[in-house]
Design a protein that fits this description.
Length: 382
């Protein structure tokens, strides 16, 4: 599994941030809702083994976010939890949300806690790799020849755009008809900083960056494209292209390997990264990193809380385990430990172990805990 190797590009600003944080020790664990506690249990098992095996010396603490936090604190993100997140050097998150909280005040729903922690911690840069393990080529709904060797990195702006824009309102017109609206704002500085992350990622990969927008319709996208073009002047070695989001969605299923790094806004990145996940066989395989300007980050699987299978012990924990690997790599510069976790995951797949979402003929179906135990065993033997 190829990940970004920051050692090849010493001038990369992201690498400089990582190296400054290499000695950090505090990790806050937020299991969340639905399958969150189940998958997090496996992620923590792997993290503890890595902690011991590589002498990392991390100290773990636990708290609640989302619906679990609402039940405990009356808020999806308690003030004390936010302060603990600020004090930690990295945060590992499971998932939030579920039908249990669908009827409460919208301002108190689990997702508002997730958006708030991202905003309050300044986690503007969301890295979502879509990498197809060769063992899972048959699990993708696309033909193996279309997806084999797939390795895409989607860089999503995470703290701006329509999810955070104001004004936003739901109202009733004089006619009695209901109406709602949201606002999609972006400032030049917001676009510039995420564009720089995209270019930095491209520099340590294959020097190709596709910026996805809707500049033929949206004023915010027109500014987006202008600023990306300006930032490109500082990266003459990177081949920059632009694509409208509707075409990008089509191209992801037509010829996904044409992409290397994609940079895009909050809403487009949310949609496209979920679409890209299915190229890899299952969204249960996709980790993510959300970073601030110093590469302090929150790490979480790309999938949601999956309340329909919560408590059944069948959820795929590999996205959470790979999120642990991303945390070690990006926030702590523990490359050897990160590589070992990824190698352990690959070995387990070689053994033919599969959770239901990636099950294929000839493989043995296992549950959440058994998959986590297999990765732990492989990691210990490396």
């Amino acid at each position: 599994l190829r990940q970004v190797d920051f050692s090849t590009e010493p001038q990369c600003s992201v690498r400089k941030h990582i190296m400054r944080n290499a000695m950090s020790k505090q990790i806050l664990i937020l299991p969340g809702d639905g399958i969150g506690p189940e998958i997090m249990a496996e992620g923590v098992k792997v993290l503890n083994v890595a902690n011991d095996k590589f002498g990392l010396g991390y100290e773990l603490s636990f708290d609640d976010l989302g619906g679990a936090a609402y039940d405990r604190y009356g808020s999806p993100l308690a003030d004390e939890t936010l302060e603990r997140a600020r004090a930690a050097d990295a945060v590992l998150l499971g998932a939030v949300g579920g039908p249990k909280w669908d009827t409460i005040d919208p301002a108190l729903r689990p997702e508002r806690g997730l958006l708030k922690i991202r905003s309050e911690l300044g986690l503007f840069g969301n890295l979502r790799p879509a990498i197809l393990y060769p063992q899972l080529a048959e699990a993708s709904t696309l033909k193996p020849e279309v997806v084999s060797g797939l390795d895409i990195l989607i860089v999503r702006e995470l703290t701006g755009g329509i999810y955070f824009g104001t004004p936003r309102e739901r109202t009733t017109l004089e006619s009695g008809e209901r109406m709602a609206y949201d606002t999609l704002p972006y400032s030049e500085s917001e676009v510039r900083r995420i564009a720089k992350v995209g270019f930095d990622m491209a520099m340590v990969r294959n020097k190709k960056l596709c910026s996805v927008d809707k500049a033929n319709v949206l004023a915010s996208s027109q500014l987006w494209r202008e600023v990306v073009e300006e930032v490109a002047k500082d990266y003459p070695d990177v081949e920059l292209s632009h694509m409208y989001v509707d075409n990008a969605a089509m191209q992801l299923v037509r010829a996904p390997k044409q992409f290397d790094v994609i940079v895009t806004d909050n809403m487009f990145g949310d949609i496209l990264s979920d679409q890209a996940s299915m190229l890899t066989g299952s969204i249960g395989m996709l980790p993510s990193a959300s970073l601030d300007v110093n590469s302090k980050g929150m790490y979480e699987p790309c999938h949601g809380s999956a309340p329909d299978i919560a408590g059944q012990g069948i959820a795929n924990p590999l996205a959470t385990i790979l999120s642990v690997s991303m945390m070690l790599r990006y926030s702590f510069a523990q490359v050897a430990a990160a590589d070992a976790i990824e190698q352990a995951v690959s070995q387990v797949l070689d053994q033919g172990l599969r959770t239901g979402d990636i099950q294929s003929e000839g493989c043995r179906k296992v549950g959440t805990a058994e998959m986590g135990d297999a990765v732990v065993a492989a990691l210990k033997n490396l």
